[in-house]
Amino acid sequence: MAVAGSRLTSSTLAGALVLVLIAPCAWAQKSSIPRTPAGRPDMAGIWQTLNEANWNLEPHVATQGATETLGAIGAVSPGIGVVTGGTIPYLPAAMVRRDRNRETRRTEDPEAKCFMPGVPRATYLPHPFQIVQSDSDIMIVYQFAGAVRTISMKNQGDAPVDSWMGWSSGRWEADTLVVEVTGLNANWLDRSGNFASETRRVTERYTLIDADHIRYEATIEDPAVFSKPWVLSMPLYRRVETGVRLMDFRCVEFAEELMYGELRKPEAK
Predict the structure, then answer these.
(1) What are the residue boundaries of the structural domains of the chain, listed by start?
(2) Nearest 5°: phi and psi at 90?
(3) CB of 206 closer than 8 Å to CB of 43
(4) Cα 171 from Cα 160, distance rounded (Å)
(5) Distance, CA of 163 to CA of 145 (rounded, Å)
(6) What is the secondary structure of 131-156 as a DSSP string?
(7) Which whole number is the average pLDDT over 59-82?
(8) CA 157 remoteness from chain centre
(9) pTM, whole model, 2 decimals?
(10) pLDDT at 257 over 60
(11) Rounded to a whole number, what is the largest CA-CA distance in the chain?
(12) What is the pLDDT of residues 137-193, one digit of tens each?
């Protein structure tokens, strides 16, 4: 009997040891991302992309920039693209407009005029943005042009009026923040003339992969411009340097000559 009891005790201890070893692993997997007191993924912080999407969402080679006098400084950087499938599915008439936009991008791109970039372009501009998170609302503050939007974590219904940054309603699907954006003004999507109309709907998905990376995905639906919905995706990187913060980039003054220079009175001789 003593032998049997000894075996039972050994088995019990072995089982307990397995549980002790497994439990921390399970806890570590659940806690591998930072969470708010309510248990949601904590995305608060300053983030930025690291790609060439703002030059052109589709795959592209390096080319001469719109202003030749800047030489290589103004050249277009090559990029592998961020569009699922590689190509944006334009309707024929919209493709003609895209090509026309591309020819006039130096003066007609809303970014050059310091207009607010809209969604999703605000995410992949070469400027950081800050996420401020609570249980009821999430605010995203962008360095470019001081653009701001608030994501309400309840269904707000239809937008009362169109705006540059749109009308954002959010919800959680497991650990993914899903944001429905409507009420957007017509706007360009990059510097190469890709665009969308005021009828577009953007569905964003933010998934915190680990403490310093978010997987970002946006589905764009716009039957006035595209033959079907399409998706772009990219990682977002947390800015971790000491003292990181959003800086002032009030670009209106940089756009004055472009927009109003021809209206200036000639200097008296």
Answers:
(1) 1-31, 45-261
(2) -75, 150
(3) yes
(4) 20
(5) 15
(6) EEE-SSEEEEEESGGG-EEEEESS--
(7) 87
(8) 23
(9) 0.85
(10) yes
(11) 116
(12) 999 999 999 999 999 998 888 899 999 999 999 999 999 999 999 999 999 999 999
